[in-house]
Sequence to fold (241 residues):
Amino acid sequence: MNKTPAEAKELVTAIKPLVKDAKCGVVVCTPFVDLANALEAAKGSNIAVGAENCHWENAGAYTGEVSAPMLVSMGVRYVIIGHSERRTYFGETDETVNKRVIAALNAGLNVIVCVGESLKQREQGITAEHVAIQTKIALDGVTRDELKRIIIAYEPIWAIGTGKTATAQQANEVCSAIRSVVAGLYSRDAADAFTIQYGGSMNAKNAAELLAQPDVDGGLIGGASLKPADFATIVRAASEG
Fold:
């Protein structure tokens, strides 16, 4: 929940020339009120625009919500579903994540699905099991063809906005476990082609090491995305990885 519409336009405008030669996909996901300005600022560039959530129904008595068809009608191409903050503060469950994923896919959006464990779950040694359950439920009803429009972002809840980061080895272990789940649900070929991001306080200093890991295909960037130079450094690391 950062940036007014005018500030969002300024930020995307500043980022645009810094990432124009990126050899990886670049997506900015903004609050709903910023989408129109972000789309305008990103026009003609290699930056795609996404939203931070969407509802599972196309229309109806859901005051305050935004539907996937509404996003598509604006020109939005991506949406984040199941971010840890949505789960922690706003009652998102594995089941409602799945409903939103299906609705977003049906509308034609690309979906970034977030999974991850709490500090207590990591200390209990159930990280792999917990993330596997989240992944399996999120992908319930998703076809192999639709899987091509999904990215999974592993975001350990204990590393979101805390400044703590999983070690590169820890990040890779969980991303590898997620890939194994996808292989079991679909096929090894589908899993090998699947994009898995790391989303726990990736920044300009640690991005290169994290992105060098074999099962970390990209980053879901939080605070560092608000600093154009830092974000550009991360994009360069992803381009070289």
Observations:
- Residues 119 and 158 are 5 Å apart (CA to CA).
- The domain at 50-240 is CATH 3.20.20.70 (TIM Barrel).
